[in-house]
Amino acid sequence: MRDFTIVAVSAGLGKPSSTRLLADRLGEATVTALKAQGAGAKVENIELRDLAHDVVNTMLTGFPSGAMPEVLEKVTGADGLIAVTPVFTTSYSGLFKSFVDVIDPESLTGMPVLLGATGGTARHSLALEYSMRPLFTYLHADLVTTSVFAATDDWAGEAGTVSPLPKRIERAGGELAARIAGARHQGPAGLYDNVPSFEDMLGR
């Protein structure tokens, strides 16, 4: 079985960022699950905070600029995608949505995707289901069943309790690993992929 590449996109605004931390944990869980299946894997992290100006310029001009061509190639060519955003005003961040808007809308078709989000309280956890999941469903991504929301208290757990976050991360990573190992995502179609050969046109 070949080695797989997983891209983890995080839209946290701070450094350090709990959003990046969740993306790291999800990536580690996925790699561990793939290794248990005998497959090698690596995670490439993309922090949108560092690309904010390039994202805006790409939206304004309609053409990828700065680091965006390389970043978009990594995302659309990955074997699996982990997408994590902070929740602002009950939805994904504007930076996260702007980045998704500059991705070729057909390039994520069939891509195994794991969704994650962070927020101050668990009240925002449903944003994953009513906001993020419909967005990636529209893009025809292959979404895993388990999404992961991490509130501030989830990282330590309340006094006398055990946080369910590690187990949820492990389960989500296992689901993504299973999808990646069995996926047939080919990335965006090339410009001439569907052009018939001369032999085909001549009926030979």
From TrEMBL:
Pfam families documented for this protein: FMN_red
Domain named NADPH-dependent FMN reductase-like: residues: 5-154
Annotated keywords: Flavoprotein, FMN, Oxidoreductase
UniProt organism field: Amycolatopsis acididurans
Protein name: FMN reductase
PANTHER family: FMN REDUCTASE (NADPH)
